[in-house]
Amino acid sequence: MITQAEIDALLDAMQVEFEKTGDDADRPGLITFQSDDWIGFDLPTCCTAIWRGIRYRGIRVTISRERETRVWTHGEALAAGERLEHLEDLKSVQDAAI
Q: Does some domain include residue 97?
Protein backbone atom coordinates (compact mmCIF):
# COMPACT_ATOMS: atom_id res chain seq x y z
CA MET A 1 0.00 0.00 0.00
CA ILE A 2 1.32 3.43 -0.92
CA THR A 3 1.13 6.36 1.51
CA GLN A 4 0.33 10.01 0.86
CA ALA A 5 3.95 10.87 1.73
CA GLU A 6 5.18 8.40 -0.90
CA ILE A 7 2.78 9.84 -3.49
CA ASP A 8 4.03 13.36 -2.72
CA ALA A 9 7.67 12.21 -2.94
CA LEU A 10 7.08 10.54 -6.32
CA LEU A 11 5.21 13.54 -7.72
CA ASP A 12 7.92 15.92 -6.54
CA ALA A 13 10.72 13.70 -7.94
CA MET A 14 8.96 13.54 -11.33
CA GLN A 15 8.58 17.32 -11.33
CA VAL A 16 12.29 17.79 -10.55
CA GLU A 17 13.19 15.40 -13.38
CA PHE A 18 10.94 17.31 -15.78
CA GLU A 19 12.50 20.62 -14.76
CA LYS A 20 15.95 19.09 -15.35
CA THR A 21 15.21 17.52 -18.75
CA GLY A 22 12.42 19.73 -20.09
CA ASP A 23 10.81 16.56 -21.49
CA ASP A 24 7.03 16.54 -21.01
CA ALA A 25 7.15 12.74 -20.73
CA ASP A 26 8.96 13.13 -17.38
CA ARG A 27 6.35 15.33 -15.67
CA PRO A 28 3.81 13.81 -13.25
CA GLY A 29 0.87 12.43 -15.19
CA LEU A 30 -1.56 10.19 -13.33
CA ILE A 31 -2.24 8.52 -10.00
CA THR A 32 -4.05 5.18 -10.10
CA PHE A 33 -5.50 3.16 -7.27
CA GLN A 34 -6.56 -0.44 -7.37
CA SER A 35 -10.11 -0.19 -6.02
CA ASP A 36 -9.40 -2.21 -2.84
CA ASP A 37 -6.49 0.13 -2.01
CA TRP A 38 -8.69 3.22 -2.50
CA ILE A 39 -11.34 2.16 0.03
CA GLY A 40 -10.50 3.91 3.28
CA PHE A 41 -7.49 5.77 1.82
CA ASP A 42 -7.44 9.33 3.13
CA LEU A 43 -6.08 11.43 0.24
CA PRO A 44 -7.30 15.05 0.12
CA THR A 45 -8.72 15.04 -3.41
CA CYS A 46 -11.13 17.38 -5.12
CA CYS A 47 -13.39 17.42 -8.15
CA THR A 48 -14.14 20.91 -9.47
CA ALA A 49 -15.89 19.67 -12.62
CA ILE A 50 -17.14 16.23 -13.59
CA TRP A 51 -15.14 16.25 -16.86
CA ARG A 52 -11.89 16.93 -14.91
CA GLY A 53 -12.43 13.99 -12.59
CA ILE A 54 -10.87 13.49 -9.18
CA ARG A 55 -7.59 15.40 -8.66
CA TYR A 56 -4.80 15.45 -6.12
CA ARG A 57 -2.42 18.41 -6.48
CA GLY A 58 -3.84 18.88 -9.97
CA ILE A 59 -3.00 15.32 -11.04
CA ARG A 60 -5.86 13.05 -12.14
CA VAL A 61 -6.70 10.15 -9.82
CA THR A 62 -8.40 7.06 -11.24
CA ILE A 63 -9.73 4.08 -9.34
CA SER A 64 -10.16 0.70 -11.01
CA ARG A 65 -9.97 -3.02 -10.32
CA GLU A 66 -7.83 -3.35 -13.46
CA ARG A 67 -5.13 -0.82 -12.52
CA GLU A 68 -2.34 -1.12 -9.99
CA THR A 69 -1.83 1.49 -7.29
CA ARG A 70 0.98 3.74 -8.52
CA VAL A 71 2.05 7.16 -9.76
CA TRP A 72 2.64 7.45 -13.51
CA THR A 73 4.73 9.92 -15.47
CA HIS A 74 3.06 11.91 -18.24
CA GLY A 75 4.70 9.64 -20.83
CA GLU A 76 3.62 6.44 -19.07
CA ALA A 77 0.05 7.72 -18.70
CA LEU A 78 -0.18 8.56 -22.40
CA ALA A 79 1.29 5.17 -23.35
CA ALA A 80 -1.34 3.50 -21.12
CA GLY A 81 -4.12 5.25 -23.06
CA GLU A 82 -4.82 8.31 -20.91
CA ARG A 83 -6.01 11.25 -23.02
CA LEU A 84 -3.74 14.29 -23.21
CA GLU A 85 -6.52 16.72 -22.24
CA HIS A 86 -6.86 14.90 -18.89
CA LEU A 87 -3.25 15.64 -17.92
CA GLU A 88 -2.59 18.86 -16.03
CA ASP A 89 0.38 20.48 -14.29
CA LEU A 90 1.39 19.54 -10.76
CA LYS A 91 0.37 21.98 -8.05
CA SER A 92 2.31 22.53 -4.85
CA VAL A 93 0.84 21.09 -1.67
CA GLN A 94 0.05 24.66 -0.54
CA ASP A 95 -1.69 25.62 -3.81
CA ALA A 96 -3.69 22.39 -3.85
CA ALA A 97 -5.00 23.09 -0.35
CA ILE A 98 -6.76 26.26 -1.50
A: no
